[in-house]
Each structure stands twice: as C-alpha cells, then as structure tokens.
Automatic annotation (TrEMBL), chains A, B:
Organismal lineage: Archaea, Methanobacteriati, Methanobacteriota, Stenosarchaea group, Halobacteria
Species for this entry: Natrialba swarupiae
Molecular-function GO terms, alphabetical: ATP binding; triphosphoribosyl-dephospho-CoA synthase activity
Protein name, entry field: Triphosphoribosyl-dephospho-CoA synthase
PANTHER family: CITG FAMILY PROTEIN (PTHR42280:SF1)
Domain of life per record: Archaea
Length: 283, 283
C-alpha cells in the first residue's frame, strides 16, 4: 500500500493525465500559457507539504508548504484548489479517511492555519472574486497583510472558508463534509476502463452536477450554467463511450472560449486520492 | 531552484511525457500491459530513494529503495535503468554535477552497494540476457542469493556493471563517465520547443546514435541496427519538424512489432535531470 502523501501526489498526476477533460489541461491538451509539464512539476513540488500533512503537521503549515513547492514552476497556479482539499484529506488519513474524520480535521483548524493560508497566496496568483465589503480587509490577495485582522476577529481557516460558500465549491467541500470528493471516489470505483478513462468520466459527471465555480467567477453564471447543461447532456447519453467526437468538440470549444472548469478538476483530484487510499482504484 | 531529488523525479515524469518516443509509452501512447499511469506511479514511488541519494546515502541503498518504491504499481518494471543512472547523478549533485564527480561516485561504490543492487532485482522483473559462464553465479536474477559470491570475489557495484559492458548501455554510462547522459543534456539545452518536443527530439537523436541495448537483448542486433538506421534517417531530415507523420508511422510500427527502446529512454531521463539541474531546461 502506497503511503498517503504518495497517493496524494499521484492523485494530482492522474487528474491532469485524465483525458478528455473539457476545457482543462490533460494528457492530450496544453493551453497556451499552461502546459502539462507545469502540472507535473506542480505535483512534484507539492510533495513535501503533503508529507508534512501525513506526518501530522497543522493543515495551514502543510498547505503553505505544498503551495510554495507547487508554485515553483512557470505555469503559476496549477493545483492550489486541489491542495486545499488534499491536505486535510491526507491529515485525516493518519487516523481514518472518512467524512466524519476529515470534518473534525477542518473544524479543528486555528487562526494560525488561517494565517498560513493567507501567506500561501503570496506564492501564487490565484483567481478570486472581490469579497463582500465587510470581508474586504480579509481579501486573500492581501496575503500576510490580512493576518492582523484575522487575529483580531479570531477567524480560523474553517471560518474563512465557511465565509466563501456559496461561490467557491472548494470551500464548500470544507463545510459540507467533503461530500462531492467522496462521491467522486465512489464514482471512480464504479466506473470502468483505465484510470485515465475513469477520471475523464468522473470529471464530466461532476461538471454535469453543478456549475463550476471557477467558471462562474471568470465568465459569469450564465456561461457556467450552459457548460454544466452541455456536460449533463453528454454525460446522460454516455458520450465518452458512444460518441467521443462530441466530447472532443465540446473540449475544443471550451478551450477556444478560454473556459476552464478548474474547481471540477480540484474535486476530481480529491476523489482520486480517496479512491487510491481505499484501493478501489489500483495503479 | 528545485532540489535534486525533485528534479530527478520530474525528469522521470518529463521523460515519459515526451511524445512521440517511438516504441515507448509516452503522453499519447499506452502499450497493452504498460500504461502511462504506471510510469507516473513509478516516479512517485521512486522519490524516497532519490531523497536518500540527495541526503548522502550510499548508491546501493538509495537505488534499492528507489526501485522498491518504483515497483509498487501494476506495470512492473518502468524505470529501473533510469534509476540506475539517476541515483549516482543525484549523489554527485550533492557536490557538483559534473562528469568527474559522478565518475568518482560510481568508482567509489562498494561490495555492499553491489549486494543492494542484487536485492533490487527481487522487487521487479527486469529483462536481462543470460550472463557468460564465469558470471553465471552472479546472474542478477538470483537476487540476494548471489550476495555470498559477490563478497567472495570482492566485487563492487562498479565492477559488476563494468562486466556488463558491452551489451548494456546503462552500465556503459557508469564506465564511460555518463558521456551520453551529459550529451543528452546538452542537446536538450540546444533544442527548441516545449520540454515535451525537446525530449522527443533528443530521444530520437540518441536512438539514431547507437543501437538500443534493450532492443538488442529482446530482438537481436539486426533489428536494433535497423531501428537505429531508421531513427537516424528521420533525425537527419528533421522529420519531427518537417514530416511528423513519418515519425508517427515509425512509432506505430515499433509498437506493433513490440520493439521498445527502453535504454534510450533511460539515457533521456538522465539527460533531463542534468538539464534541469543546470537550469538549461526550465519548467
């Protein structure tokens, strides 16, 4: 059995290898400024932070280290959201990888974890929306400058992420017991085909479930809803199996429009980690 | 600057991602029993052994650990030869990554390193030829059973590999100052295009230089020479740029015939590591 930090790194690699993943970098697709090898280097760089989580470090410290290592490549942000899911999952796997345990991990985060989370934004350019007025002093783009306000208000990392829901489906996993991550793992277990094919299938099913929140932030609700409806139509008729060309056309179109469903990829990576840990996906 | 163990793992990943690499698994190619994700998991698993080498462990111990981790996936041997090059290179990078330093690393190996090398064969099914009669008690397929004979004859790991030349171009790197690995790095630096394109170009150039010794072992000298001549013809007319379909046809044909130039891939991975360390290939 592969140790948790290795499974987490492998989950990042399997996620980006899965193809086709409409709109995103995959084994057969580079974007103009963001290429496959940036994701490979991002996964390699994240490993030390994932090892810290496996060794029992606090979620914030492990996340900050993972992001710092991930960002040491020329593609900038490749796996920030995925790491925000993987770090608490790896931490939970020290005891037991279940929804209640990972809930207790995230609910146990502290103000210091929140401060580390803010510092992580200094390593990398993450796409975020403007916060509501009362949260403006806690705009993540302030990085460590926001730490005194965090401390003054006594906000833990769980509190910070809880305030980002709705609108951010990575944060939503934190406050909803990682339900979609565990669902993704179950779907990966139930799917057939190679790991790459299963990953593509589960990515499409997740995209069909809910509008991708990164797409909402960048392109608005209407576009995000349209993308989800198209994904649902393809998923319902099992197009990856029966009509792969239509999925490929959808993928080409999203790339052409600059629409990349990054949140869905993050949840897919979390699901891959859980499936690897449970050995219902074997490599 | 990425630390050496990370660069070594990334070199393994970039090697398998480079496409097209005629006859081998690559970003766009799976073989029937050996898939891309086996190489991803192999690289992830090798990391701990590579970290040991970076921390100053002996070459044999680090190699045995790297191979044990690499082999923990369903594709069996993915990167044995590449690790036999990367481990001494990572060890050399502690001081200086140059040909004289890596020569002194391999010449300084001991009988204990040789014993660890033999034990490494117990983790994985490596394709090897029958040894000459006087080396029969030291057939690597004996694994640790051969250790008493090694000790009796006082053979170091350098001695063991030196006796495998000619016939094994990974072993040849050990006794020839890693000349092709450093040459590959220089070619990677001089090449143009994305890392994946450079990797494909350098792989083809190395295949054009010398018959691949894994192909010799599996298919004989005539086939290996023919493959090299074909690669040379494609390389000379810059077919990757000017006539990519002909390279693709060559790749399809080799896969159809079960010809995979694995030694050339091993040297490519070593070159990638050196190029990453020297920052003449940036990701």
């Amino acid at each position: 059995m592969r140790p948790p930090a290795q499974n987490a790194e492998l989950a990042l690699l399997l996620e980006v290898a899965g193809t086709p993943k409409p709109g995103n970098v995959d084994r057969r697709r580079d974007l103009e400024e963001l290429r496959f090898e940036h994701f490979l280097a991002g996964a390699v760089g994240a490993r030390d932070g994932l090892e810290m989580a496996a060794d029992g470090a606090s979620v914030g410290a492990a996340f900050e280290r993972a992001v710092g290592g991930m960002a040491a490549q020329g593609g900038d942000n490749t796996q920030f959201g995925a790491l925000l899911l993987l770090v608490p999952l790896v931490r939970a796997a020290r005891n037991e990888l279940s929804q209640p345990v990972v809930e207790s991990v995230v609910e146990g985060t502290t103000v210091a974890d929140a401060a580390a989370f803010y510092r992580a934004f200094e390593h990398v350019d993450v796409f975020v929306s403007d916060p509501p007025a009362e949260m403006e002093p806690l705009d993540v783009r302030r990085g460590s400058d926001a730490v005194p306000v965090l401390e003054e208000r006594g906000l833990t990392l769980f509190d910070v992420l809880d305030r980002s829901v709705p609108g951010d489906d990575v944060a939503r996993e934190w406050s909803h017991g990682f339900e979609r991550s565990f669902l993704a793992a179950q779907r990966l277990a139930d799917a057939s085909g190679t790991p790459s094919e299963r990953t593509a299938s589960v990515f499409l099913s997740l995209l069909a479930d809910r509008p991708d929140t990164l797409v909402v932030k960048r392109h608005g609700e209407v576009t995000a809803r349209e993308v989800t409806d198209r994904a649902a139509e393809l998923h319902e008729r099992d197009a990856l199996e029966t009509d792969p060309d239509s999925v490929k056309a959808f993928a080409d179109e999203l790339v052409g429009r600059g629409v990349n469903p990054g949140t869905t990829a993050d949840v897919t990576a979390a699901g891959l980690f859980i499936a690897l840990e449970r050995e219902c996906l074997e490599i």
